[in-house]
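Could you help me review a protein record that somebody else here produced? This is what I was given.
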Amino acid sequence: MAETHTVTIARLNDKLRVEGVGGKILATIGVQNLSHSVRADVIRAVCEFSNFDSGSDPYNEHDFGSIQVNGETYFFKVDYYGADYMSGSPDPADPEVTHRVMTIMRADEY
């Protein structure tokens, strides 16, 4: 049975989030300035995140999450760009025309 469009998008987003494959991962300056050990804890928490729900993931694409590390809140967000990285992807389920970018940020940077 073929995957639905949404399931394909979620699978591709999970592959980027968990394996670091299929796109770029960016960290904001607030995350970059964390100590090495805290930054590693944040990245680990992003990779292990699985609490997608209707409040944070209304389209079931696994493109956003909120995590807590050492009492601080961090977000991750996956965006879908076209080949020029300036426009949106024409089809986020097609990795041939989609450039995924996941940004990890402190909540106070949002």
Observations:
- The helical segments are 5-19, 29-32, 36-48.
- Residues 5-19 form the longest helix (15 residues).
- The CA atoms of residues 64 and 77 lie 4 Å apart.
